[in-house]
Amino acid sequence: MTARSILLWSPSAIVFDCDGTLMDTEQHWQEARNITFRQFGLTPPTGFADRAKGVHYSECGALMAKETGKPDLADELAGALLTTFTALVDEDPVTMPGAAALVRLAARHVPLAVASNCPREMVESCLDRAGLLSAFSHVVVAGGDVRPKPQPDVYRVAARLCGVPPEEALAVEDSLTGMESARRAGLRVIGTGQRPQSPEADLADLWVPGLADRQLVRWAHSRFGA
User: Fold this and answer.
1) Catalytic annotation on 92?
2) pLDDT in tens, 139-195
């Protein structure tokens, strides 16, 4: 599907990523990673932030351990990372520009879900403090039999819970890891942020700078504004 054709399409459900898409938490993850590295006396490898974006915190801990040559610290790093991130988010939960308006508009017309690699308590707490939790019919997180992104599980489950086939649902994502998950599940994808100069950019049908993008806002009002 081309960017033009996705803007002529009406999804039967929308599934949003949380971190970096609805909530401005990527800055918190970056700070939490830096703090955790310092706590363990480790130096962040060059480019680590890009490789860690959208990765489940337990896998991020393993990546931190591997890339610093400390494989035995994987569990400790993951635990410290999650604890630090949770504290930072509790202090400063902020929505991404345009997120609240888009969610509230779309929620009046189609079922909405969240698909996240973060723990459920954290996702629900963030959305609740932002006044958005009630807009979502379902919150799907990794855990148990539901594998984290980039596996397709969270998006596949979210579409099913919304009562629609995956191909009738739209995913809204900011990370390539999440876009791969949604694409593998069969959803169409809008990517937010700067389009990367790599073949992986094609994981999204449409790229927009953010949820306040004028093109996206016009599309939303044309589909859900009545």
Assistant:
1) no
2) 999 999 999 999 999 999 999 999 999 999 999 999 999 999 999 999 999 999 999
> Residue 152 in contact with residue 181, Cβ under 8 Å?
yes
128 given a catalytic annotation: no
Question: Where does residue 199 rank: exposed (0-12), middle (13-18), buried (19+ CB within 10 A)?
Answer: exposed
Residues 22 and 139 sit within 8 Å (Cβ to Cβ)? no
Give me the count of residues in the chain.
Answer: 226
CB 124 within 8 A of CB 140: no
For residue 195, give the amino acid letter.
Answer: R
Question: Is the distance from CB of 99 to CB of 21 less than 8 angstroms?
Answer: yes
* Catalytic-role residue among 19, 24, 153, 205: 19
Show the tokens assigned to 3.
């960017």
DSSP labels for 113-130? EEEESS-HHHHHHHHHHT
